[in-house]
Each structure stands twice: as C-alpha cells, then as structure tokens.
TrEMBL record:
It comes from Neorhizobium lilium. The chain crosses the membrane at residues 18-39, 59-82. Keywords: Membrane, Transmembrane, Transmembrane helix. Pfam families: DUF502 (PF04367). It comes from the Bacteria. This is DUF502 domain-containing protein.
Length: 225
C-alpha cells in the first residue's frame, strides 16, 4: 500500500520558512553585532588619545569605525618591534624594575604577564586538546580542556605515587569563560580527537552541535608468510 505524503498547511510552510530564515540570519546578525560592538568599544578607549593631526575624522569630518582599533594594532606592533632590539629591551627592563618596586602593582603585573606568556607562547600546548573525565560521579562524564602536565609544588605533591597528573579546565555550559581547574591522573582522562574549537561549540550549544567523527579503521595485520 502506497503511503500518501502528509500535506503541510500554508501556516506550517510559513512557519518552516521562518525558522529556516532565522537559522540563516540569526548567526550572521549576531556576528555582525558582536564585531561592531567590539570595534566601538576599542574606538571609545583609543580614539581620545589619538593626536588630532593623525585622526582621519579631523580631516573628513565623519566618524570612521575601526580607527581606534587600527591605531591600537599599529601601536602594539611597533612596541613589539622596538622591544626586540637592545634599546627596546633596556627600556622594558627599566619599566619592569619600576613596577617590581610597587607592592600591589607588581603582583598584578606578574600574574597578568605570566598568563599572557603562557597563552601566547608559540610552543605552548595549552588548550590544544579535549578530553573526558568522570564527573561528578562514576559513570557520568564531563568535557574538559587539557592545560598541560602538573608542575611545581603541585606536581611534587601529587606525583609522589608515580601517577602522572594533568591539569584540566572544566567550563560550565553555556558560558565557557568560567570553570574549575582540576588535577586529574592522566590514566583517568579519555582523550578526544576533536579540536578545542569544536569542543567549545559542543559546550556552548549544550550538546546540540556535535563535531563529525570518523573512526580510524584499524590497520589489518597480515599473517606471516
């Protein structure tokens, strides 16, 4: 018996078309909004400090979005270039020595510098892998980002029994900017093939956007001749 396809009413087709359009337009609109919000925020911080003769708005008498952000990128790049030569290193060392003498400022400066050096270090393996750990109880699994091997006093105290400990970051859903830093035995982590970007999408979407996974077929073992 041939099944008769169910006819969709006009209201149903309009609803489906609207939802399809929403799926297409909403990410684009949110991306544009976030981009211009960030540009406006950067301009509001940098533009007041730009000398008038270097400000394009002074000559064209119109507001040019992104001027402050562009100036900030150029300024930071120039500072980085100067910081690589002998004179620049001397100036940076002098500035750091001044900050080291300030009780509260030196603590903030050391912490921020250490975090940025760790995140931006070219050879760093921070947050380049994802994994699963049993949390909050056996049989329940949580997604974590691998920070690296435990170091310093933590490694000396936790690795005493010979079990290698790994630092992992477990963020909540749907805001991955907060979370818990935990030290887990390496043998207790199930490593994943997905990238941190794919893991972040899975986390933010609450499990709705899962990356494609293609299992690696085992290499056949040929019998001895």
């Amino acid at each position: 018996m041939t099944e008769i396809p169910e006819r969709i009413s006009l209201a149903g087709r309009l609803r489906n078309n609207f939802l399809t359009g929403l799926i297409i337009c909403a990410p684009l609109a949110i991306t544009i909004w976030l981009t211009f919000t960030f540009i406006d925020w950067a301009d509001s911080w940098v533009t007041p400090y730009i000398p008038q003769r270097y400000d394009p708005q002074y000559y064209f008498n119109i507001t040019i979005p992104g001027t402050g952000l562009l100036m900030a990128l150029v300024f930071i790049t120039i500072i980085g270039f100067l910081g690589k030569n002998l004179i620049g290193r001397s100036i940076v060392s002098f500035g750091e020595s001044v900050l080291q003498r300030m009780p509260l400022i030196r603590t903030i400066y050391r912490s921020v510098k250490q975090i940025l050096e760790t995140v931006l270090k070219e050879q760093s393996t921070s947050f380049k892998k994802c994994g699963l750990i049993e949390f909050p109880s056996p049989g329940m699994w949580a997604l974590v980002f691998i920070s690296g091997d435990a170091q310093g006093e933590v490694a000396a105290k936790l690795n005493s029994d010979g079990e290698e400990m790994v630092a992992v970051f477990m963020p909540p859903t749907p805001v991955p900017t907060a979370g818990f830093l935990m030290f887990v035995p390496k043998s207790k982590i199930v490593m994943l093939a997905m990238t941190p970007e794919e893991g972040a999408k899975l986390l933010i979407s609450g499990g709705l956007i899962a990356p494609q996974y293609k299992p690696v077929a085992p290499i056949p073992v040929l019998p001895p001749a």
